[in-house]
Amino acid sequence: MFPVRQPWLCKALGCYDCCIRCLGAVPYPSLVATLLCFAGMALFCGSGHEALTQTEVLVEAHFARNIQDYAAMASFIKYFQYVIYGLASFFFLYCILLLAEGFYTTSAVKQTFGEFRSTQCGRCLSLTFLIVTYILAVIWLAVFAFTAVPVFFFFNTAQTCHNINILAETTPSINQHAWVCMDARQYGLLPWNAMPGKVCGMTLAAICKTKEFHVTYDLYIAAFAGAGIALLALFLYVVASTYNYAVLRFLGRKGIRC
User: Fold this and answer.
1) H or E element that contains 199
2) Residues 106-123: tens digit of each pLDDT
3) Which residue from 225, 240, 206 is spatially nearest to 101, judged by alpha carbons?
4) Which of 193, 226, 203, 171 has the alpha carbon at shortest distance from 47?
5) H-type helices in the chain, by residue range?
6) Which among 58, 8, 72 is positioned nearest to 206, based on CA atoms?
7) CB burial readout 128-138, b (16+ within 10 A) else e
8) Model confidence over 159-178: pLDDT tens digits?
């Protein structure tokens, strides 16, 4: 954010001092938050989109025989994938706006350049970004909790498969572990009248050994991590924006033009 309208500033201060002033105007917390937001949303959207596709394949292949049983789930997955596209676009644009607002407030707070001055309208705009970002952080906290549900489902499935393998090694009769099942209907993936709806015994253990199962599990974990990174970025935005706005209000009450 170099003031091109004041070229005399570099001549008066020298290149080194001018570069130091430029670096001092960089909103490093907002910059870090922007990079974290981009990385988190890319991980969440990319992994979540592919994980939903793989989930549909797994349910169709092992938990439902009739296409009508998982038609609602397939429609929900397709709808949620479109939501992911919208989230990626929205957060990309919003993070750019927050970074630009961070440049403005940081320069005004530090009084780095003469042309960066805070006005009543500017402080109102900063407060608006602060409130919107806080609301988004609260909403995204719910999204972060929601992404833990499929991770919990696949973790339970993996633990069930592990128990089946232990029973298969310790008991000679297959009837001892045939009652150990995983019912997809309990998690709302399928209606209660779906057939078979559940997989038991060694059939379930065989599913857990497939490449599709492990890939889907890893993708959901990556999406969960991406949601957490994006949440951290939003909290960083809130902290940085709150500090800058508070300083501007304090200087304004002291009668300092900033």
Assistant:
1) strand 198-200
2) 665 555 444 445 566 667
3) 240
4) 226
5) 8-13, 15-24, 28-62, 71-110, 120-170, 201-208, 211-253
6) 58
7) ebbeebbebbe
8) 888 887 777 777 665 566 66
